[in-house]
Design goal:
By secondary structure, the chain is of the alpha/beta class. Helix 7 crosses helix 9. It starts with 19 loop residues before the first strand and ends with a strand. The model has no long low-confidence stretch (mean pLDDT 97).
Length: 676
């Protein structure tokens, strides 16, 4: 079933129907408690559940002795109610007999502490022993369920690198050396040159001599070494997952295969996701305790997910307050659960499952609440899910095959830039945080905004912002130039293209490979460590804007013009922001960080320059479209009724009514208009 479409923010997920359901843990309940579950799920409009991601010990209670009878029974009972099953490989929680027999599979953290049994994700994906057992349980499950018509797909493992995203065990030490040997063609000299090991006498005589890097042991690691270690971590988990995916696909070609993320040290735009049919994202908006910030946080995270690979599945959508040792989330207020669901669908979810069906009464997540409470009594959260289930009979089929419209894009979805920043942060904001400032500016003003990788399809994008990507592949420049020449407006943030693929500083005058396209050179740069003591401001179009974090003094090529200048200290009168016409478009270079004041002062003129128009400010508006149709999602996050003037002509799939001159949305309310 694997899709052959390239990864793109416009790629629909490979589903023939909209799957709607919940993560289900029947192993936690006696037969009497779960007796009514299939009927209740059917009444809620469910057509799928997710099963078995933490049940290795139940399916293989002793090594080599497999028993799938419990899940055979549950899958059959659910199937009779019209509810299909997504199974999970259970490798996130290996059984105790395995860790007793093979303690060498346990991860070791950077401090040298070996993990122990008693939680989850304690096993290392580099371990040959653990990988062998992973293949065995995956093969046994796949072979057993191969011909079961109720099993429609699989999730690999569960949230790779959720709790611990690196390992320094002996298996990793050996695997890291082999990874480097393959990367550098068995030439240790090539590694030494690429890493600059002449610094601090770091020269290696063999690949076996290279250790995994650890901070503060005793001081700062080589940033090139650290970046390749992060590449190793993503390559390792990709290979671990690929072994499972290969087994599943060989047994049954009709199954779809996904995984639920997103976490550090995994390149979700690389082979990890290409091995899957679609990416999955576990969506928990209530981690943001401030309700005023929650809607935006969810929107940004969903857009970031779509930047990696396109539309996705939500294997876990928050349905109640989540609680573990250090926190307990707010309980969604009436209408909030439904609203969060539609935000996910609007911004790219092609299927969605809630976490979880029933709140567990024991274990580390006994207060991670689901649709049903501990007593199994259906209350308002169940009623709200039931309402969504009824509405999705119309909305679900309509969204399939569509993608999210993006007029304004912020660069996102790049593993190397995130990893490179982490190796040398300098106390500067993460590129993601600056992406938030840019994205939020457009989101709050009602623009069709998204996150898009520079190598992606920019054909419909009018304005593209790159926020401080220190590693910028020179191969990306030519396609970007063509896009600008055709009329695009490109905005480049300070420090972009200053390091190469090895995480070393480029030899060229910065901004490196973008220097010619931007038409600038950086004469001087510096960090603003205490802006209040030595303030610097941008002066542009009559405004004076304070800056934080960083400054660059720009020298302009003959055909480049100043857009803003510095005011303060020795920089007064020096160019801070430039603009250069390239074909029908413009390239803007911004010699400081995209703080919110800078973004708010600079971007209005650039949206006007790019010809981008706001949609309907005051509510969240997202358009999902393809060549045949347009679906407009209107979502009211305000605590008052909002009236939308001149909505698109069409039918509201929620109510079944045609739209008129106005569309009124109560607090937390939704409209999904299929345009005619």
């Amino acid at each position: 079933m694997k899709t052959t479409l390239p990864l793109s923010h416009k790629r629909p997920a490979n589903f023939s129907r909209f799957w709607f359901g919940a993560a289900y843990y029947p192993e936690h309940w006696d037969e009497a408690t779960r007796a009514d579950d299939p009927a209740r799920m059917k009444a809620a409009g469910f057509n799928v559940v997710r099963l078995a991601e933490f049940s290795w010990d139940l399916m293989e209670p002793r090594e080599g002795q497999y028993d799938f009878s419990f899940y055979d029974e549950q899958i059959a009972r659910l199937g009779q109610a019209g509810v299909s099953t997504i199974l999970c490989t259970p490798t996130a929680a290996p059984p105790r007999w395995l860790t007793v027999q093979h303690p060498e599979i346990l991860r070791v953290n950077a401090a040298g502490v070996r993990m122990q049994h008693g939680s989850r994700q304690q096993a290392c994906v580099s371990s040959p022993v653990f990988r062998d057992y992973s293949r065995r349980i995956t093969q046994a499950m796949a072979g057993h369920f191969r011909d079961n018509p109720q099993v429609v797909g699989w999730q690999t493992d569960n949230e790779f690198y959720c709790h611990i995203d690196e390992c320094h065990c002996p298996a990793c030490q050996q695997a890291f050396g082999e990874f480097l040997r393959q990367k550098f063609g068995d030439d240790i000299g090539a590694l030494n040159r690429a890493w600059g090991t002449a610094f601090w006498a770091l020269t290696f005589g063999s690949f076996a001599a290279v250790l995994t890097p650890r901070r503060d042991q005793p001081t700062y690691p080589n940033p090139a070494h650290e970046l390749d270690f992060k590449r190793f971590l993503t390559a390792t988990v990709t290979e671990f997952q690929r072994e499972q995916v290969t087994i599943l696909r060989a047994e049954q070609s009709r199954w779809f295969v996904t995984h639920n993320g997103l976490f550090n040290n995994i390149d979700y735009r690389g082979e990890f996701t290409r091995d899957l049919d679609m990416l999955g994202y576990d969506c928990y908006p209530m981690f943001h305790f401030n309700p005023a910030e929650r809607a935006y946080s969810q929107a940004f995270n969903l857009d970031q997910t779509r930047a990696w690979s396109g539309n996705f599945i939500i294997p876990e959508q928050q349905s109640g307050p989540g609680g573990q040792q250090p926190y307990f989330h707010s309980n969604p207020e009436p209408g909030e659960l439904r609203k969060m669901t539609y935000v996910s669908i609007a911004r790219g979810a092609d299927s969605l499952l809630y976490f979880r069906w029933r709140t567990c009464r024991f274990g580390a997540e006994e207060y991670w609440c689901g649709i049903l409470d501990h007593d199994s009594v259906p209350r308002r959260r169940y009623a709200e899910v039931q309402q969504v289930g009824e509405e999705l009979q119309r909305v679900g089929p309509a969204v399939l095959g569509t993608h999210v419209r993006v007029d304004v894009a912020v660069a996102g979805g790049d593993f190397v830039n995130n990893a490179a920043h982490d190796t040398l942060p300098f106390g500067l904001p993460h590129p993601r945080h600056m992406s938030v400032n840019l994205h939020r500016h457009f989101y709050e003003r009602g623009y069709a905004v998204g996150l898009v990788h520079p190598t992606d399809d920019l054909a419909d994008v009018k304005l593209f912002c790159v926020p401080h990507w220190v590693v910028f592949d020179p191969a990306w420049v030519t396609p970007l130039r063509r896009w600008v020449e055709a009329g695009g407006v490109l905005v480049i943030g300070a420090r972009t293209a200053t390091r190469d693929a090895n995480n070393n500083v480029v030899a060229e005058t910065i901004p490196g490979s973008l220097r010619e396209l931007a038409g600038v050179t950086v004469e001087e740069y510096g960090k603003q460590n205490l802006p209040a003591a030595r303030p610097l401001r941008l002066t542009l179009t009559g405004k004076s804007v304070p800056t934080d974090h960083w400054y660059e003094w720009l020298q302009l090529d003959r055909d480049t013009k100043p857009l803003a200048k510095w005011k303060g200290r020795h920089l007064t009168g020096k160019v801070a922001v430039s603009t250069r016409r390239v074909g029908k478009g413009q390239v803007i270079y911004v010699g400081t960080y995209f703080t919110q004041p800078v973004a708010d002062a600079l971007l209005p003129a650039l949206t006007k320059l790019a010809g981008v128009k706001s949609l309907w400010p005051g509510v969240e508006v997202v358009c999902r479209q393809n060549a045949e149709k347009r679906l407009w999602f209107f979502i009211n996050h305000q605590e008052r009724t909002v009236t939308i003037k001149q909505p698109p002509r069409g039918v509201d799939l929620i109510t079944g009514k045609k739209t008129g001159k106005t569309l009124a949305l109560r607090p937390n309310d939704i409209a999904v208009v299929q345009a005619t």
